[in-house]
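Weekly modeling sync, notes
Attendees: S.R. (lead), two postdocs, one rotation student

Agenda item 3: backlog of single-chain predictions. S.R. asked that every request posted to the team notebook include the full sequence so nobody has to chase files. The rotation student volunteered to paste the first one in as an example of the format we agreed on. Action items at the bottom.

Example entry:
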Amino acid sequence: MFKKLINDKRSRFIITLVSVVIAAFLQAYVLNVFIQPTNLLSSGFTGVAILIEKITSLFGFSFPISLGMILLNLPVAILCYKSISPKFTFFSLLEVFLASFFLNFTHYPPLFDDILLNIVFGGFAYGLLTVIALKGNASTGGTDFIALYVSNRKGKAIWGYVFIFNAIILTIFGYMFSWEYAGYSILLQFISTKTIDSFYKRYERVTLQITTTKAQEIIEAYILQYHHGISCVEAIGGYSKKPMNLLHTVVSSYEVQDIVSLMKDVDSNVIINVLKTENFFGYFYQTPIE
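Predicted structure, as returned to the notebook:
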């Protein structure tokens, strides 16, 4: 048991580390290939760092984007690490440092001359790299820290509010430089935000309706591994006329596959119906970010 726990921790560490490296490399690649060549602004603190670099260039010197990314992220990380997770904060900062490193020492030519193609592919790729980091139990730092801090407290995703923050930054960019490119950048942010919403389901809840003849065994296995409540009512099979039980529980959508596998291991004939939960009122246990 102890050996398995060590192996699980080691596996999670490796998965997180690999996710962070991939996300950092992709972030630098997207900035180099899609965003900077077209004078667009990326999301979050990376976009703020690009904006600072553009503003300082008006005064005869250039503040490096990579340095701006690091300096902007450090204060937020210090404020948020206790409320989120020290491990999560460490890997998120590692992603920021690696992205800054890759940005300085890797250079790639643009793929497209057409600005709309850059917006579509750049927005999707930026959203996807954010999802890779989040699913690996890390983030790309900056506004991700703030979004996850608030999401953990509210129990729901707030990426729409992050988009509003980015739109405000882009309005400043448009006022100082170009409304046209600010508009293009807002479109890029919209695609990026929708990509995150589509693939990152941590805060989406679903209802599981479970029909089984081994209710007690399933309940014991479920409670042993998960902290969610589960209710049980007696029922009669309409076809078999045999006694059975109907179980009811609400879980995060990202847990569904693991829970279904657990219940199938206990009862191979279990029937599980997964229903999207639009609204939920009452206490709900949200698994903390490690």
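Discussion: group reviewed the output briefly. Residues 78 and 89 are 8 Å apart (CA to CA).
Action items: rotation student to repeat for the remaining queue; S.R. to check formatting next week.
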